[in-house]
Specification:
The chain is built from three helices and seven strands; from the N terminus they run H-E-H-E-E-E-E-E-E-H. With 155 residues, it is α+β, with helices and mostly antiparallel strands. It has a domain of 108 residues: Nucleic acid-binding proteins (OB fold (Dihydrolipoamide Acetyltransferase, E2P)), CATH 2.40.50. Strands 2-4-5-7-6 form a five-stranded mixed barrel. The longest helix has 30 residues. The chain is elongated and about 80 Å long.
């Protein structure tokens, strides 16, 4: 084999190795990617089916229920427009309360219940993830706009 052909073979092998490495990195990144959705988006079927994602909003007042002799907790997450029931088995964060912000990671069950594997609570009264705050603001505006239109407001 001529030196020129050997050089082309090594360059080709290098390109193949780089391609395989890039494919493995992108596959690992894709499988660990978790998106954030609001209850309104989940009800609107924008959330992935059969894949893990995060749902965020407020813990609905009066919805927190603990199973007896178990670490299983049931509550509802709302963005003031729509509500999603959540089931979580494990220890909740100390700041987890009704009426406070929450982000839960898990999968949506076939019955429409979100089965959380992780629950995060906001860390103080002034903080809320920007995505959650924007989603709550949009949902709240969506609720108030139709009522203005039904009163004859020209907007």
């Amino acid at each position: 084999m001529k030196p020129r052909h050997k050089r082309f073979a090594w360059i080709g092998a290098g390109i193949v190795v780089l391609g395989v490495a890039a494919a493995l990195v992108l596959n690992a990144f894709q499988s660990n990617l978790v998106f954030f959705f609001t209850p309104t988006q989940v009800v609107g079927l924008e959330a992935p089916q059969g894949r893990a994602f995060r749902i965020g909003g407020l813990v609905e007042n009066g919805s927190l229920a603990r199973d007896a002799d178990s670490l299983t907790v049931r509550f509802r997450v709302t963005d003031t427009a729509k509500t999603i029931p959540v089931v979580y088995t494990g220890l909740l964060p100390d700041l987890f309360r009704e009426g406070k912000g929450v982000v839960a990671q898990g999968k949506l069950g076939p019955d429409g219940t979100f089965r959380a594997t992780e629950v995060l609570a906001k860390h103080d009264e002034n903080y809320m993830p920007p995505e959650a705050k924007d989603a709550l603001d949009r949902a709240h505006k969506g609720m108030t706009m139709p009522s203005l239109q039904s009163q004859g407001d020209p907007r």
